[in-house]
């Protein structure tokens, strides 16, 4: 019998999933789009995450299953081409998230130790961390869990220290004026900035996979989701405000891929830069470790529900074969694509998955004892956000948009071909 998970542990799963490598990877990107309104951009993205968490709460209570999102989509749409396509998109979105984390690791690591040059070192470090995490996943799942539990505490302590020192350092800082409304981008750009970095919030959905093991679920599942999401929204808004108020926009642009470490310099000097860099490496490594396991489990669940070839339920050595496929796909994406393209594709993927889950919450409101209004608002916001993100990014990041649309199309095409083949 499995040990039960308390509220603290359930919250740490959600917080650990959100505060993974996301904030380290996409903060500079958000500032480049939203400028002084970056905290508002994070708020926009957080509101959509919070609304979506309502559907997750109700569905987790009614359909507690280690399949999590996969189970919810299948409950709402049956085992159809649509549900299979969305579940495939969830798996691919995990792979994109992994690429984002590996990109962040590859951007921060050369600041501590240069091997050849920053450009080459990025590929060396990013590839190394994927291979290392894959090896650890094959070696022992217990080790994965231990690394994640320690990493959550370390990265949160360092980020909270950054926030505390950062707020103190803002007093008298001339860059504080950058946060004024006159330095904000327009509403559409603020919203776009929030949606590009929406991937920084997706991790709360991991609580759904743990739902069957949470003690006193009626009390603890809602608290776990809401407390985790609200805590992370506040954390991200403050981190964004401290960063924009600490550094000139020009310096933020120069250090876009490792801006959080650069933002620690005015307050703590080179030591602060190094501490945040180490925190970024720990965070992104632990996130890759945990997400590789999560991604392989998603592919296993989809195959078990006969929405992908049943061979994916097989094992290679001691782990689902999906682990190796996930790792190889992550290596390719990380080394072939720019950070903004990866982030855009990941955000589009998760927005569509969350739109679907919200629609299931609306569709099944009577069975899940829920409110119809909140899920339909969540569905509409996710859908509108996807359209705005794609239209806005098309002019500045065509590669990311083409990649996102191609991935969505491929996920559904793959499912249609598989269903047709199995049907025959």
Low-confidence stretches are none
How would you state the average pLDDT, rounded? 92
Please report the distance between the alpha carbons of the first and last residues: 41 Å
Q: What's the name of the CATH homologous superfamily? A: Amino acid/polyamine transporter I
Amount of beta strand = under 5%
Number of strands: 2
Walk across the major sheet and give the strand order: 1-2
The number of domains: 1
* Tally of separate helices: 16
Instruction: Just name the CATH architecture.
Output: Up-down Bundle
Helix content: over 70%
What is the ordering of alpha helices and beta strands? HHHHHHHHHHHHEEHHHH
What is the CATH C-level name? Mainly Alpha
Structural class of the secondary structure composition?
A: mainly alpha
| Cα gyration radius (Å) | 20 Å
Task: Characterize the structure shown.
With 424 residues, the protein is an all-alpha fold. It has a single domain (7-415), classed as Amino acid/polyamine transporter I (Up-down Bundle). Helix content is 77%, strand content 1%. The protein has helices spanning 7-18, 22-34, 38-62, 69-77, 81-108, 118-139, 141-170, 187-196, 206-210, 217-246, 249-254, 259-304, 322-336, 339-363, 373-396, 398-423, and strands at 315-316, 319-320. A two-stranded antiparallel sheet has the order 1-2. A hairpin with a 2-residue loop joins strand 1 (315-316) and strand 2 (319-320). Helix 3 (38-62) crosses helix 8 (187-196) and helix 3 (38-62) runs antiparallel to helix 10 (217-246). The protein is globular. The N and C termini lie far apart (41 Å). The model has no long low-confidence stretch (mean pLDDT 92).
